[in-house]
């Protein structure tokens, strides 16, 4: 009960107006208040304790005002991982603001590396993660403003999730491409539009790969995908015979 009150701005205003300060003095979890986006609590609770996880959680949840407050008032708890957390969760406004502040800059990342915080660095995996979740806006922003790029996993996982817009964009704008797994992932999950797009690539639409996709789509109850792929093979076979 106390936690739910202390992390609700309106209830906090009412209770703190009549309280003698005991509950406020006991409240120390700054990370939770930041994660929930309760800026008023951060501004008025004198005994809060923070870790770098506060900024990570606020960034991941899109609480830009909280991130800004932490940057200004808790500089010792700044986290180079915050931008990655925001990017993975489609919080583009937070990503852009942190980038403008230089938190995810090369200098900041080099500093983190020098301190041994390798897990906190932006990597190609961040664009991969954004693509997997279908966050095209974040993928495009990272492409335009960052140099880390992505891997073939970006398109593979976007295909797995049925994110056709992301798959199309990656195919057109990024050089990494995908692996043969992209077609199989899409077929397994019944994403026919993605399957149709990927089969436009002769490498992915090779008969052996298509046969495997047919088997996997049938096995997972996606008969419409299997039927379309079967027709694709049939047309290819007839074309070869006629030529």
Automatic annotation (TrEMBL):
Transmembrane segments: none annotated. InterPro entries: Ankyrin_rpt, Ankyrin_rpt-contain_sf, SecEffector_AnkRepeat. This is Uncharacterized protein. It comes from Achlya hypogyna (Oomycete). The lineage of its organism: Eukaryota, Sar, Stramenopiles, Oomycota, Saprolegniomycetes.
């Amino acid at each position: 009960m106390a936690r739910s009150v202390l992390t609700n701005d309106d209830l906090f205003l009412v209770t703190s107006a009549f309280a003698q300060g005991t509950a406020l003095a006991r409240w120390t979890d700054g990370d939770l208040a930041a994660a929930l986006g309760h800026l008023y609590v951060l501004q008025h609770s004198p005994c809060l304790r923070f870790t770098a996880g506060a900024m990570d959680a606020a960034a991941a949840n899109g609480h830009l005002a909280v991130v800004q407050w932490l940057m200004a008032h808790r500089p010792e708890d700044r986290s180079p991982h915050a931008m990655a957390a925001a990017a993975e969760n489609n919080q583009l406004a937070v990503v852009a603001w942190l980038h403008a502040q230089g938190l995810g800059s090369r200098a900041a990342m080099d500093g983190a590396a020098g301190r041994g915080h390798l897990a906190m660095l932006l990597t190609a995996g961040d664009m991969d993660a954004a693509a997997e979740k279908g966050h095209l806006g974040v993928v495009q922003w990272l492409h335009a403003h960052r140099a880390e790029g992505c891997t073939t996993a970006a398109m593979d996982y976007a295909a797995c999730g049925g994110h056709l817009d992301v798959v199309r964009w990656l195919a057109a704008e990024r050089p990494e491409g995908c692996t043969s797994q992209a077609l199989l992932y899409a077929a397994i999950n019944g994403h026919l539009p993605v399957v149709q797009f990927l089969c436009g690539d002769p490498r992915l639409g090779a008969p052996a790969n298509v046969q495997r996709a047919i088997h996997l789509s049938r096995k997972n109850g996606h008969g419409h995908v299997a039927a379309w792929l079967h027709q694709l093979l049939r047309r290819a076979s007839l074309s070869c015979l006629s030529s």
